[in-house]
Amino acid sequence: MRPLPTALAGALLAALSLAGCGQTATSAPVSPTPAASAPGDASASLAAAGFPVTVEAGNGAVAITARPERIVSLSPTATESLFAIGAGPQVVAVDDQSDHPAEAPKSDLSGFKPNVEAIVARKPDLVVVANDTDGVVAELGKVGVPVLLEPAATKIDEAYDQIADLGAGTGNAARAAEVVAGMKKRLGELAAAAPKDAKLTYYHELDTTPYTATSGTFIGQVYALFGLTNIADKAPDAAGGYPKLAAEFVPQADPDLVFLADTVCCGQSKETLAKRPGWSTLSAVKNDRVVPLDDDIASRWGPRVVDLAERIAEAVRKAAAG
User: Fold this and answer.
1) Residues 293 and 2: beta-carbon distance below 8 Å
2) Which residues, at least 6 apart from 138, have a Cβ–Cβ distance to it below 8 Å?
3) Rounded-to-integer distance, Cα 286 and Cα 290, Å
4) Does residue 237 have a pLDDT over 70?
5) Domain spans, the chain
6) From which residue to which does the signal peptide run (predicted)?
């Protein structure tokens, strides 16, 4: 889901305050089980041996007694992570904003306005959410459905922890560890290859208001891997991490690079920026350093953060080369 500024002022910022979770497992170690198995076969017995487990999520210690076979995801980021770690065959429904991967069983369920009756109708044995909207965690708990609250990550390490949580809670811990290791390796490679003395500044746009993100946010940490300086860090009222900028702020700061995370939602491009008062003279516009991003990839904190980092790395290399 995109962190639209209207949500940032409410639901998202509330979620950010809950972020930060690691996973622990009780009983036997969780065995690698990349897909659901038929009852009675050897792999099913192996999977069952890893439970019960207790996962330390955003809503505290969550006990999961048996390997989930009917998972409902109300978080697009969690959906991406579940499929990446091999839990896709265990997922029976995802929310209406989950659009990746294509095979995810998209439904009319909402993560923004969760309907407990509609969720329970899917007969889930595990539900994953990014926000505890309307007390959905407690409501599902009343009917015996375990819930993992995995809120918006504020640090890259929190994104890794959440993938580990999902691995432990679904019986796919080994694959989750592989995914995290792969992310760390690739991000490390990209950061190491970045120009060391480019001293470039940047602006990351969330929407046309414009709202942006500071270095203290998850997205800001991704940019920091490449030694970029965020112009939003000097914005007034930036303490929440997502300041609303004055119309003249970006033209006055004149960033070397502009990254647009509102190309899909709002149709933004170098051409539309040039039509804004004072923006046509931006160095980034004149030097063709306006970088369009996929809105979803730029707003989620799952495995595809590597794709975002690769896009940033490419732009930095080009800018540094002149």
Assistant:
1) no
2) none
3) 9
4) yes
5) 5-26+43-186, 194-320
6) 1-19
Q: Which fold has domain 194-320?
A: Rossmann fold (3.40.50)
Query: What is the tens place of the pLDDT at every residue in 23-48?
Result: 444 433 333 333 333 444 444 544 45
d(CA 87, CA 34): 6
User: Are 212 and 8 within 8 A, CB to CB?
Assistant: no
Closest CA to 303 of 130, 100, 59, 105: 100
| Distance from C-alpha of 146 to C-alpha of 22, rounded to nearest angstrom | 17
C-alpha torsion 265→270→272→278, nearest 10: 130
> What is the C-alpha end-to-end distance of the chain, expressed in Å?
35
Question: Distance between CA atoms of 14 and 10, rounded to whole angstroms?
Answer: 6
- Do residues 80 and 304 lie in contact, with contact meaning Cβ atoms separated by under 8 Å? yes
DSSP state at residue 9:
I
**Domains 5-26+43-186 and 194-320 in one fold:** yes
Determine which helix (DSSP H) or strand (DSSP E) holds 259, and give its type and residue range. strand 257-260
Cβ count within 10 A of residue 43: 15
Per-residue tokens: 25? 């497992």
Q: Are 129 and 62 in contact (CB under 8 A)?
A: no
- According to DSSP, the residues that pair with 221 across neighbouring strands are none
3-class state of residue 204 by DSSP: strand
State how far the alpha carbon of 171 is from the alpha carbons of 66, 122, 158, 180, 294, in Å: 9, 20, 20, 16, 31
Structure tokens at 255: 């960033």
Q: What pLDDT does residue 322 have?
A: 81
What was the pLDDT predicted at 217? 96
> What confidence tens digit (pLDDT) does each residue in 157-187 have?
999 999 999 999 999 999 999 999 999 999 9
The architecture (CATH level 2) of 5-26+43-186 comes to 3-Layer(aba) Sandwich (3.40)
Which one-letter amino acid corresponds to residue 160? Y
